[in-house]
Amino acid sequence: MNQEVEHRRPAAAAEPFVLGIETSCDECAAAVVTGVPGRARIVSNVVLSQIDLHEAYGGVVPEIAARAHGETIDRVVGEALDAAGVTLDAVDVVAATAGPGLLGGLLVGATFGKALARAKGVPFAAINHLEAHVLTPRLTDGISFPYCVALLSGGHAQFVAVEGIDAYHRLGGTIDDAAGEAFDKTAKLLGLSYPGGPAVEVAARSGDPARFDFPTPLANRPGCDLSFAGLKTAVRLAAERAQPLTDQDIADICASFQDAVARLLERKAGAALAAFAEKVGAPAGHLVAVGGVAANGVLRAALTRAAEKAGAAFVAPPLPLCTDNGAMIAYAALERVGSGVAPDPSQRVRSRWPLDGDAAPLLGKGKRGAKG
Ligand code: KG4
Ligand code: ZN
């Protein structure tokens, strides 16, 4: 369980205390954040990971996740309040993730949050998980609008121009797998541990990135859409041909795979920054990487090169705030309340909830909205 604690009450009531709850996937998280948009601080941040519950299945099992959230949510919220040194009476707004994500977990967190808010007579804020991720650099680094985000997580891979609250433009995104999914599937195929991203990065350290010439799908096409499916197939074929796999074979496949992802992301981040300049009418000052995949050192280096080439600074929030957490949910609510764009209190939980409602779907579209 992670805790980042800073005991200090806000100077003025104009700086609300926001309790944020996150249960959209396999982290049961709660945090207290206070301050104003662009200048906020984390008072407490508690994350209870469910990795050990899902490890044996090689991925998150929705039913198991929902049940576990139900069993731990009260304890996690209690710990976040305790660590902040406050009781519920000090909370001015309760925020919870309402989507996108796994419905069972979302219902647990949102219903719990709504009940707390109702009991205390304070507003409830239903927050879009993706919005919380893309606003994180304003919490961690105080970055001003506009900026360009590479959102690379277990469920997403997209480039977003962030111009302000509710002004998010998807510049491009994956047409098949998410970035983390590609790492997780590669790890599973090679018999590495779950979650796959860190295991692949570690194995790659002793591997030869030049041994396999893996493809970089869509790299030579204009635009900044991404694709990982062809790369996944190439990895599977290479692994089948090299059977029985030695540790060196596994390391070489990991290094070559990671190198291909890095080359693809460097190229597409460059294209995203060019698309940003066209859309926003000015070059991006910052390229920000968020999501668990942003933990990867080789990918960070690739994104840094792309940013430098376009004259932008590369920013990656500290790892515990790149991955799922309650602080980003609280902060997104604080941004909305502070800028007068209050969240819709009647917002229902949604398994799909695109950040940019105007962008054409990259993946399947149904009643629930576009995937990805
Ligand atoms: O953002 P996150 O914690 O959860 C959500 O998906 O919302 O991201 C988890 C993903 C997993 O797919 C994991 O394998 C990947 O991030 N990941 C990494 C690394 N650490 C985590 N991928 C590549 N390299 C890493 N070091
Ligand atoms: Zn996430």
Q: What is the ordering of alpha helices and beta strands? A: EEEEHHEHEHEEEHHHHEHEHHEE
Strand adjacency order, main sheet: 1-4-3-2-5-6
Oligomer: single chain
Low-pLDDT ranges: 1-12, 365-372
Ligand names: 5'-O-[(R)-(carboxyoxy)(hydroxy)phosphoryl]adenosine, zinc ion
Instruction: Give me the Rg, rounded.
Output: 20 Å
- How far apart are the termini? 29 Å
Q: Give the tally of structural domains.
A: 2
Query: In percent, how much strand structure appears in the residues?
Result: 15-25%
Please state the average pLDDT score: 92
State the CATH architecture of the largest domain.
2-Layer Sandwich
User: What characterizes the major β-sheet?
Assistant: 6 strands, mixed
From the spread of the alpha carbons, the general shape counts as globular
CATH third-tier fold name of the largest domain? Nucleotidyltransferase, domain 5
Helical residues, percent: 40-55%
DSSP strand count = 13
CATH class label of the largest domain: Alpha Beta
Annotation field: number of helices: 11
The CATH superfamily label of the largest domain reads ATPase, nucleotide binding domain
Structural class: alpha/beta
